[in-house]
Design brief:
The complex is a heterodimer of chains A (about 210) and B (about 170).
Chain A: E1 2-4, E2 10-12, H1 14-33, H2 44-64, H3 72-87, H4 100-129, H5 139-174, H6 180-211
Antiparallel strand pairs in A: 1-2
Helix pairs in contact in A: 2-3, 3-6, 4-5, 4-6, 5-6
Chain B: H1 7-137, H2 143-158
Helix pairs in contact in B: 1-2
Classes of the chains: A mainly alpha (about 210), B mainly alpha (about 170).
């Protein structure tokens, strides 16, 4: 954590710095993995990469449908970023998703994406008309839903990761030797991946809902 | 720990940058390669199907040709058989006719010869009888009597079983 010396000084949190590191790692990994891709006779590395990306693509396409193809790269980016962030705790850094700013940023982007989906699909008029569905009385509920969805997404992720982090810190404080291993497996890996999965799953569910 | 500030904006910027970078360096190339492969596979599949269709068509054509050739050969053999039969019949008929003709001619020849021999013999016998009669009688009688006697002799000599009367 450091401060940009502009005006009163803008503090830059550790979460942002860790995000930069994660970004750098991901880009370098991508560059290494996508080096000399071949159409014919792909190597084992390429096959693995393709299998992973293809399974992600199938997963999102299953939820979003054919017309959601354009949002798939963003969703894949988010699930990769969240997966890496959530398990980054095992490398001794604070996971960025433990910071409310990061999860809120993700949730806000999801919210914009969800609403953008609806506008892109139905047009501006159709999108606003859909707030009166299924009956006009539902209008306040529908408007609230726009903000409740990202809030739920944001706090679910934040709470899970923060809780895991706190529990891990306590466990490490009590018994720093063998005991943290199963806890780490659960809180960092299992919960981390589950939360990443839930986040993108719910986001794409909401997207396909607004596209209906 | 729970405070919302400029880091929210930083994170959004980070995420957008990460999205663009990932799209450029990871998903772009990989999906491009996968699509290319899919396209190639589709193309090859289509080509294979085309080739198969062509092969099937050729096979059908050859089968038809083979069938017609078989029919042709059958017909030719049948025709040849018929022709050969007709020719053989014709030849046999001609031979039969020739044989009949030759037989008839031989018969005619034989009967003509016999008639001639008969006539010759009649003349000779007449002459011999006259001579014998003139020698036996040794005298000249009237021409009418001679002729009557000669005829009588002929009649008797013509009968092979009754020549003891002379």
């Amino acid at each position: 954590m450091f401060t940009i010396p502009i005006g009163k000084g803008i503090p830059v949190f550790e979460s942002v710095v860790v995000t930069w590191v994660i970004m750098a790692v991901l880009v370098v990994l991508s560059l290494i993995l996508t080096r000399n891709l071949k159409v014919m006779n792909p190597g084992k590395k390429q096959l693995l990469l393709e299998a992973g990306i293809d399974s992600l693509r199938k997963f999102f396409r299953g939820i979003l449908g054919e017309e959601g193809d354009r949002y798939i790269p963003y969703m894949m980016t988010v699930i990769i970023f969240l997966g890496v962030s959530n398990v980054s705790g095992i490398f001794g850094v604070k996971p960025p998703t433990k910071d409310l700013n990061v999860t809120l940023a993700l949730a806000l982007m999801s919210m914009f994406l969800i609403e953008y989906c609806g506008i892109h699909k139905k047009g501006l008029k159709g999108f606003f008309k859909s707030f009166l569905d299924p009956i006009p009385v539902m209008l306040p509920m529908n408007i609230m839903e726009v903000f409740i969805r990202p809030t739920a997404l944001c706090f679910r992720l934040f709470g899970n990761i923060l809780g895991g982090f706190v529990v891990m810190a306590l466990v490490e404080f009590v018994c720093p030797a063998i005991l943290p291993i199963p806890f780490s497996l659960y809180f960092d890996f299992f919960d981390g991946f589950i939360q990443a999965y839930i986040f993108v799953f719910l986001t794409s569910m909401f997207m396909s809902e607004t596209m209906d | 720990m729970i405070q919302i500030n400029m880091n929210l904006v930083f994170t959004i910027i980070n995420l957008l940058v990460l999205y663009l970078l990932m799209k450029k360096f990871l998903f772009g190339p990989v999906i491009h390669v996968m699509d290319q492969r899919q396209q190639m596979l589709d193309q090859q599949l289509e080509e294979a199907k085309k080739t198969e269709d062509r092969a099937n068509e050729l096979q059908k054509k050859y089968e038809t040709a083979l069938k017609s050739a078989k029919e042709d050969s059958c017909r030719i053999v049948e025709k040849a058989k018929l022709e050969a039969k007709a020719q053989a019949e014709q030849t046999a008929q001609a031979a039969r006719a020739e044989a009949d003709r030759m037989l008839a001619k031989a018969r005619d020849d034989i009967s003509a010869e016999r008639e001639m021999a008969m006539k010759e013999m009649q003349g000779e016998v007449g002459r011999l009888a006259m001579e014998a009669a003139s020698r036996i009688l040794d005298r000249q009688v009237g021409a009418d009597q001679d002729l009557a006697m000669y005829d009588q002799f002929i009649k008797k000599a013509g009968d092979p079983h009754d020549n003891s009367s002379c």
